[in-house]
Specification:
Layout lengths: L4 E8 L6 H10 L38 E5 L3 E8 L5 H9 L6 E8 L6 E5 L4 E5 L9
Antiparallel strand pairs: 1-3, 1-4, 2-3, 4-5, 5-6
Amino acid sequence: MGMYTEICISGALKPSAPGDVRTMARHIFTGWHDGKVCPPAPSHEFFECQRWEMLFGSSYYFEAEPSVTWRDDRDFSGRGNVKDYDGEIGAFLDWISPHVEPGFGGFLRYEEDDAPTLVWFSGAGVVVQPVVLPEGVQP
């Protein structure tokens, strides 16, 4: 069956983000799963993943409802969960992170983990850092 990983991410595209990145980000974060036609995918490993279109989908393993938001042709947020068999989440972060303004990006949470992994956009890439709970703290 496999396990789910939750993704909760937000950021703002840089003004210099290429047109194909902006077009595909708009597609991903405007509810493309509502029957909209997908634009041609950029050349990147993320779009070769089997479940890339399911990144902000849902299962019953996490309490939060999946959602996507796109504002001002640059601000985005998404929450969902996916069986990350092909490394969809890492590939997505690798694809979008060079085009996102630096700052806190959100978190990832594996179904069996007690603590999340935090995501930062560095301006040139992405930094992921697992949260380590202090000794004696019960999740």
